[in-house]
L-rhamnose mutarotase (Mycolicibacterium monacense), 113 residues
Amino acid sequence: MEELRMPADGVERVCFLLHLKRDRIDDYLTAHEHVWPEMLDALRRAGWHNYSLFVRPEDGLVVGYFETDDHAAATKAMADTEINDRWEATMADYFDNRPDHAMDRLTHYFHLP
């Protein structure tokens, strides 16, 4: 597929899929009831905005969405933080792979502002 151009508004909209272990779905959701404030701050500083997660509880499919000015830079900025390493370590048991390495990014091709 041909590489898609950046939207005219300069906002990169990122959607991705993750797959939870079926026996850990409820625990994963409980863990997200109180995301560490320092993790939320790190995401904001790294350039992640309008970040949402959705789950299909019957099979553990997670759909994530966020907006950023530069996906590569925002992802690298998070990967370079100690808080991300600690958060990912706590999330590791919910997934077969580390979530930050298992993101299956979807191609954005349409947006209605």
